[in-house]
Amino acid sequence: MAGELEASFDAFATAAAPRLRRLARTWCRDAHRADDLVQEALERLWSAWPRVRADGNPAAYARTTLVRVLVSDARRPWRRLEVVQDLLPDRSPPGPPVSEGEDGRVLEAVRSLPPRQRAVVLLRYAEDQSVAQVAEALGCSEGTVKSQASRALGTLRARLGATRPTSSEEAVL
Questions:
Q1: How far apart are CA 135 and CA 157, in angstroms?
Q2: Cα-Cα-Cα-Cα dihedral sign, residues 154, 157, 163, 164
Q3: CB 150 within 8 A of CB 158
Q4: pLDDT tens, per residue, the chain with 173 residues
Q5: Residue 161's CB: how many other CB atoms inside 10 A?
Q6: In 48-92, which ranges are continuous DSSP H helix?
Q7: CA 140, 141, 146, 152: dihedral to nearest 10 degrees?
Q8: Can you give the pTM of this predicted structure?
Q9: Looking at the 3D structure of the chain, how many domains does it have?
Q10: What is the DSSP string of 114-157?
Q11: CA–CA separation, 115 vs 27, rounded Å?
């Protein structure tokens, strides 16, 4: 029984790790730190694996656990003392390079959002979760998710110079 439990967790972790890493890297902008945070989330998931596996939706539990680890890590005081720089003078930045142009601008704008708004944007739009799923993952109300998403999108529009579509453009969409 223990071998079956371990094998099922290994299979799940192997399949889920790339998506979790992508979410964590987008959140924290550091590939090594993202891998550490994914590892911490998987450790927490392992301790609850029998219950999670029985519930039938381990991917949602893993994503929720990762978001909570990310938010918790961002609140640690020693992180605030650290000076984050985009580039080191003698090395290239960790992780995949940010593309030039519009995609790079959007990614940098999302990364500059406050942690709660960034979490809402990433879960709601990058991970294509519903408002209810995001609220459950973040442990807040659906109204909070909607207001944080609205504020974040307003900030992104302002930073990227986007304008709101006119009523005729909305009708086409």
A1: 23
A2: negative
A3: no
A4: 578 888 999 999 999 999 999 988 888 888 888 899 999 999 999 988 988 888 888 988 899 999 888 888 777 766 555 566 666 555 544 545 545 566 778 888 888 898 889 999 988 988 888 999 999 888 899 999 999 999 999 998 888 886 555 554 444 44
A5: 7
A6: 49-55, 58-75, 77-81
A7: -20
A8: 0.53
A9: 2
A10: -HHHHHHHIIIIIS---HHHHHHHHTS-HHHHHHHHHHHHHHHH
A11: 8
What CATH number did the domain enclosing 104 receive? 1.10.10.10
Q: Are residues 44 and 74 in the same domain?
A: yes
41/57 Cα distance (integer angstroms): 16
Domain-embedded: residue 173: no
CATH code (residue 9): 1.10.1740
How far CA 17 is from CA of 14, 37, 112, in Å, comes to: 6, 11, 25
Residue 33 lies in a domain: yes
Residue 88 covered by a domain: no
Q: Are residues 14 and 73 in the same domain?
A: yes
What six digits make up the tokens of 80?
A: 């605030």
**CB-facing half-sphere around the CA of 39: CA atoms within 13 A:** 6
Task: Note down the domain range covering 110.
Answer: 100-163
Assigned domain for 86 exists:
no
